[in-house]
Amino acid sequence: MVILKNIPILKKLVDMGYAILIVIILSALVGLILAFPVKLLWNYVFGNYLTINWFQAWALNVLAGILFGQKNSNK
């Protein structure tokens, strides 16, 4: 792209956008991989009564992270 060579700040913004997109995609993939053991454990504990799928386990991981996440205090 000739425009990116002529405007260096635009090239930096596009590169930063690609980096942010890669981080978001990798985070989602890692989150889905880590949700698989949660799904297995949940379905083992509750059996056929309450079963969840992979995306519900991922949402449960996110909710637990929000509720029980690490709190930083500078005391």
Provide structural commentary:
With 75 residues, this protein is mainly α. The chain has one domain (2-67). Helices cover 79% and strands 0% of the residues. It has 3 helices and no strands. 4% of the residues are buried.
Number of helices: 3
Q: Return the structural class.
A: mainly alpha
Counted beta strands:
0
Using the CA coordinates, give the radius of gyration.
20 Å
User: In sequence order, what are the helices and strands, one letter per element?
Assistant: HHH
As a percent range, the share of helical residues equals: over 70%
Number of individual domains: 1
Q: Based on CA inertia axes, which overall geometry fits?
A: elongated
Mean pLDDT: 86
> Hey, roughly how much beta strand do the residues contain?
under 5%
- Describe the main β-sheet briefly: none
Distance between the termini: 51 Å
Low-confidence parts = none
Features:
mainly alpha, 75 residues
Question: Could you outline the blueprint of secondary structure elements for this entry?
Answer:
Layout: H1 2-6, H2 8-46, H3 54-68
Helix pairs in contact: 2-3
